[in-house]
Amino acid sequence: MADKLQILTLNAVSHAGLKLLPPERYEVGNHTDRPDAILVRSQDMHAMTIPASVKAIGRAGAGTNNIPVDIMSQRGVPVFNAPGANANAVKELVLAGLLMAARNLLPAVRFVEGLRGSDAELNRLVEENKKHYAGFELPHRTLGILGLGRIGSLVADAAIKLGMNVLGYDPEITVEAAWSLPSQVRRAHSIEEVLKACEFLTLHVPLAPTTRHLIDAQRLSLMRHGAVLLNFARDEIVDADAVVEALTAKRLKYYVCDFPSARFDANPGVVALPHLGASTREAEDNCAVMVANQVRDYLEHGNIRNAVNFPDVLMERESPYRVGIANANVPNMLGQISTAVAEAGLNIHNMLNKSKREMAYTLVDVDSAVPADVLRGIAAIKGVLMVRYLPV
Q1: Could you read off the pLDDT of 29-41 as tens digits, one per residue?
Q2: What's the CATH superfamily of 1-86+281-310?
Q3: CATH number for region 87-272
Q4: Which CATH superfamily is domain 311-392 in?
Q5: Looking at beta carbons, which pairs linking 254-262 to residues 24 or more positions away fall under 8 Å?
Q6: Mean pLDDT over residues 121-142, rounded?
Q7: At 2, is the pLDDT very low, low, confident or very high (cuts 50, 70, 90)?
Q8: Most C-beta atoms within 10 A of its C-beta, which of 154, 314, 347, 379?
């Protein structure tokens, strides 16, 4: 019997996902020296020495900023995530943020918490002061959305059902996301168009060099007086210092976010939550199930779905003898791989190759067992990063 595959867990990953890794084939735990794969949630892996045995990393969530993706790419290791698995949880928190801001709920709660006296005295104070916390209703207000992926689409749909007008912008929207977007969403041509028109702005873009401080002082100056900014994406998408200045100038009424910061220093205009976006049992289960299935499919069959650094490559098995090859996206790689297989007298039954930016990946099914020297020959091709033999 083949040795069991070792899965290292760096955080408490939901059992709903771990149970999909059968114990007769996998050993799962938080201590192993030679893991075949790592499952992680929020732990920072940048300072970690990642063993050479690691063939895949699965992030039970959407963001992968806690993982050294570039280093893994250089080693031919896919980094999987779970896009959309926590989308409903984030959508509901965004809706909570909208309502908290519109109805001034946080300062109202703080006021009530500070009340002292008899019921008669409390009632008097409430009646005298409730006018300070009067809010407004959401219908006919305009919500701007930057990022129209799974979460952005769900937020748009929910806002429309609340009677809001929705204006969205996403220059990289996928065909799938476009199909799922409610028809009532008006598509803006620029970020600036959204900022000038909206009373609420919610952010649903990934953190990347192009989105770091996407909302800065210049863009905040374009927003309507008394607007509300919601950030349940990543903290560094927003320039926190610029937000504090906008709150002081009353250009922003509230900044509702999932990322506390010392720079906010109990600012009454900041509603900061302790990173609750995906903190529901359902979201944790969904993320764990999604990423466990993806990592298992890769380890056993070489298929790739939802890797942030690799193309999606899915090929049905038509032969028990399969080779998976990760390589740099350079010319003539496919020809060299085919030649190495053919020169060994092996017949290629099926083959699929795809690329994503600088990375490429190939699956090859052959009609007979692949000798070790053929695998070594493929691994020796300049630009090949990892070769895995996947017989069943």
Answers
A1: 999 989 999 999 9
A2: NAD(P)-binding Rossmann-like Domain (3.40.50.720)
A3: 3.40.50.720
A4: ACT domain (3.30.70.260)
A5: 254/100, 254/101, 254/228, 254/229, 255/228, 255/229, 255/231, 256/97, 256/100, 256/101, 256/228, 256/229, 256/230, 256/231, 257/230, 257/231, 257/232, 258/93, 258/231, 258/232, 259/231, 259/234, 259/235, 261/235
A6: 97
A7: low
A8: 154
